[in-house]
Design goal:
It contains two helices and 14 strands; from the N terminus they run αββββββββββββαββ. It is about 10% helix and about 45% strand. The protein is mostly beta strands. A seven-stranded antiparallel sheet has the order 10-9-8-3-12-1-14. Bound molecules: calcium ion. Its cofactor is Ca(2+).
Length: about 230
C-alpha cells in the first residue's frame, strides 16, 4: 500500500512539471546571405478564416524580420508576419493580410527568448486576434473584410517576398530560429490556443502541419532539434 502511494505521487508530479516539446527548428543565421526556407507544397485551398501559430526566437539586435511570408502572383503580402525587436524586447508584431496591415505593440518579450505567436483572422468583418504566449494581446476588426487568401502561392519562412520568391530585403530578414509553424483553415478558440502554447493541443495545422511538411533550405538556413519551452512565459 505504501509503495502504491509513492507511485501515484510521482505520476502526478510528472504531469504538472512537464512542459516542453522536442521537435525540429530552422535556424536563420544573422548574416547578409538571405537565408530562407520554402515550403515544398503550398496552401491548397481558399482561406476565408485561418489560425496561424509559430514559435520564434530572435538573436540579433534592432531589426524587423519576416517570419512568415505567403505570396501569390497578384499579392506578395497574402499573409505576412513581421516581428520588430528593439531595446532588447519584441516591440511589435506586424501582420499583413492581403496587403492590409495592422501593427500590435507587444510588451516585455525578451530578446533570445522563444515566443509563441498566434494570429486568428476571419473575413467576417476582418476580425483578428493576436495571441502572445497563449494569451490574447490585442484584437481588432476591419482587416481585409470579405477577402480571401488565394491558394497555390509560395510560402517562405525567414524573408519577406516582394515578388514570388524574390526581392528579399536583408533588413527585413528573420535572424534566429523558428519552429512549430502550423496553419489551420478555421479559427481556434482562446482555449485551443492556450493548449497549442502549452504543447497540449492534439491537432497540428490542417493546412500546414509542421511535422508533415518538407522545407527546402537556402543560403545557410539549417535544421536541428530543439526542445521548446511550452507554457513557460
Ligand atoms: Ca512583401
Amino acid at each position: 500500500m505504501k509503495s502504491f502511494t509513492i507511485v501515484v505521487f510521482i505520476f502526478c508530479t510528472f504531469n504538472v512539471v512537464y512542459s516542453s516539446k522536442k521537435t525540429y527548428q530552422i535556424t536563420f543565421p544573422a548574416d547578409d546571405a538571405l537565408p530562407y526556407a520554402k515550403l515544398l507544397g503550398t496552401i491548397d485551398r481558399h482561406l476565408t478564416d485561418f489560425t496561424l501559430c509559430h514559435w520564434s526566437r530572435i538573436n540579433s539586435n534592432n531589426f524587423k524580420g519576416a517570419t512568415f511570408s505567403y505570396a501569390v502572383p497578384t499579392n506578395d503580402n497574402g499573409i505576412l508576419v513581421m516581428l520588430d525587436q528593439q531595446n532588447q524586447t519584441i516591440s511589435s508584431v506586424q501582420f499583413y493580410q492581403n496587403n492590409n496591415k495592422t501593427e500590435v505593440i507587444t510588451i516585455g518579450v525578451e530578446k533570445s527568448k522563444w515566443i509563441h505567436t498566434c494570429i486568428v483572422w476571419s473575413s467576417v468583418e476582418g476580425s483578428w486576434n493576436l495571441y502572445i504566449n497563449g494569451k490574447i494581446q490585442q484584437t481588432g476588426k476591419g482587416l481585409s473584410p470579405d477577402a480571401t487568401v488565394l491558394p497555390n502561392g509560395v510560402l517562405i519562412l525567414g524573408q519577406d517576398q516582394d515578388l514570388i520568391e524574390q526581392h528579399f530585403d536583408k533588413t527585413q530578414a528573420h535572424k534566429g530560429q523558428m519552429s512549430e509553424v502550423n496553419l489551420w483553415d478555421h479559427p481556434l478558440t482562446p482555449n485551443d490556443i492556450n493548449k497549442v502554447y502549452n504543447c497540449e493541443y492534439k491537432e497540428e495545422g490542417n493546412v500546414i502541419s509542421w511535422n508533415l511538411v518538407t522545407w527546402s533550405l537556402y543560403n545557410g538556413a539549417r535544421v536541428s532539434l530543439v526542445t521548446l519551452p511550452c507554457g513557460e512565459d
